[in-house]
Amino acid sequence: MAPPNQILGAKSREVPMRVIVHGLHRTGSKSTRTALHQLGIHKCYHMVDVFANLETDAGLWIRAMEDKFGNAGKDDKWTRADWDKLLGDSQACVDTPSGFFTIELAEAYPEAKVVILNRDPEKWYESVNASVAPGMKPTSVIGALQNWYLATMLPDFRQWTRLVTAMFQYCTPFDYATEKDKAIAWYNESYRRVREAIPAERCLEFSVKDGFRPLCEFLDVPVPTVRDEQTGQVTDAPFPHMNDREAFGLQLRRRTGERMREANRKLWQCFCEAFTVAAMGCAGYYVWKGRWEVRFW
């Protein structure tokens, strides 16, 4: 197996890594990503960037999971140059899968500040179980068949399926729907390990409810402000509120619909091509057999 820094098409470091956010899925990660972009820290690598680059990034993340959690390659510790292949054009990272590697990333980029993005474990579990988990591991036969169909027709969805399988195998080895205690224990343990491994003076304990000010003070950047149209007073800008449970569901349904239409178009194209080849083959057969009279003038 080739080391990660030999993978074709991978990135190299283009911008400094400034912020590493230990913010797992459904902790306000997309809101934090938007906030960091507003502060001029971009791009902030998030699962949405994985979706946009499945053909290249999924395989790299799977390799990272295998090297950290798998039996094979246990001594293959990723270097800064290796991580640059994934995050070379990013000044920050948040959400999973980067959240599975907060400690390793903090070690690889010692100049980066670390934000620990907190959410109540019970609320986190409720949110994940009602949004992310069903999309990653369908609970119905129809959902499973739909994923099989998409993976059959679309190469990028095959990569997504491989990535999800690796995440459940290596990172979250439990069933969200039936193993709540295991899920919450894993969540709490991930934060405990980060706090234990990274010095407190390098970290900011943060929640999206805290607003911009503590984050800006920690990152030493100006606090965004807005002017009240009625009073004329200037106040801190509201912290972004993105990707709530309803918005996530709408986005997931829209993305699934787009993929289904793409898969159906591809299936129809395959049928048309197969029909054309079959028709030409039949015509050729009849001509060869002399069933049709062919004249050339």
Automatic annotation (TrEMBL):
<dbReference type="InterPro" id="IPR040632">
    <property type="entry name" value="Sulfotransfer_4"/>
</dbReference>
<dbReference type="Pfam" id="PF17784">
    <property type="entry name" value="Sulfotransfer_4"/>
</dbReference>
<dbReference type="InterPro" id="IPR027417">
    <property type="entry name" value="P-loop_NTPase"/>
</dbReference>
<protein>
    <recommendedName>
        <fullName>NAD dependent epimerase/dehydratase</fullName>
    </recommendedName>
</protein>
